[in-house]
Amino acid sequence: MELFNDLVIPVGSSHLTLIRLMLYISASFLFAYTGLLFGSVFLSTRAASKAKKYNDFRYQKLAQDLIKVGTGITGMWFGLGIVPLLSFILSYPQLLAGTKGDVVGYLIVALLVFSMAVASIYVYKNSINFKSIFYSFKTNVRSKSESIVEEYHSLDEDIENTGSFTGIWGILLLLVSTWFLSGATTYAYDHSMWGQSIFTMLLSANTVFKALLILSMGVAFASAVYLFYAFSWQDGYKFANDDEKELSKKFVRKFGLYSALLIPLIYAFQIVSIPNNALSGLMFVFGLLSLLFVVFFAQSIYLTKSSEHASGVKYGFMFIMISFAMFAAQDQQAFHISIAENLNNISEIHNKAEEERQALYAKSEEEPQVDAQAIFDTRCVACHKFDTKSVGPAYNDVVPKYEGKEGDLVKFILNPTPQNPAEYPAGMPAQGLSPAEGKALAKWLLDKVLGGGEKEAEPAAEKPAEEQTATK
Length: 472
Prior knowledge:
By secondary structure, this protein is mainly α. 73% of the residues lie in helices and 0% in strands. The longest helix has 42 residues, at 13-54.
């Protein structure tokens, strides 16, 4: 994307560090929310399919609660999804300037597909809500009139089909968006892919395992968030009975534990597939920390099996969030190691440009060359002469008073005040000179008068013809 490359401006090391920090924060939010949204809609569709299969409203209510995990707060899809993606689109070209690593196109595809996925998921959410309303409606009205229920049967089926269709499409679109996002971030630090086809990027082992890791961690994250809000936050949800409570806990805990068991295996393959040019000791530290917090998460989720440890889900919620943050740090560390040399080049280009700018600025600050003789010929000669009095006093009489006081002479030239009102009541008018012109003229006058060059300033006046005749 040439448009974004044209917007790149070489910046200094401090600005590059700030961009890297912004990129890490964006990665933490984006990876976590993408995974959370996927886990939310995946678990919700699973619960909805069970509700349809067993005609059990408890699963329908669970599906409704699960989809709220990723969509419950208004605008969270924009603040935690769209904004970080836009940050990626603006930041990666800045850090990859001067290389063949153009990831903007892939990130824009991820952004567009993510937007379509969000739209589909919100349609699914509304369908689930309407389905729950119709279920309550049928339950309350069937006892009074079966015919009324039959009138709305077709509408109920349409809503159910819409929910199933949009739920599946939401999952598929989110899979594609995560695939392109993983591919773009992998492409950024895998130099062997630069200049290769899009299929090389999408089918690389690191891209595939990174996408699977984000999605599996997302299922764990969604499970932790649901369990936290349902059983810990402000005394949890209000369930109809203990059976519904246990059914919800068992269903969500099962998927949380399954995903927690898969994460270490996928993580191992993902780290092994990272290219050599992006490896570092710190990257492995972040990876191990992320895995460690996944183990803590699995332990806290497992303990929810006992009602005595139900409050421990709040720790699982925090553990999986920290695990996502460490995963984002590992990914960004790999990117930083791979482009360290390029960052130095960008910084050097900026430093050279800054030096040139400072030199140009210093040159513009130098005093301009002023022709004092020209100022005298155009402004002063009409009223002043060096050796004789004219409209004003002779320079040879007044300039010596300013010997060693050039600054005072400059002030007088720029802002003249009457010095001898009795003889020159009008005083000298201001000539509108600039400070540089005033300083140059003062120096020139002092050199002429005190340096003995005043006779060269103007030719001696010829005597009148009458005086010449009388002399003869």
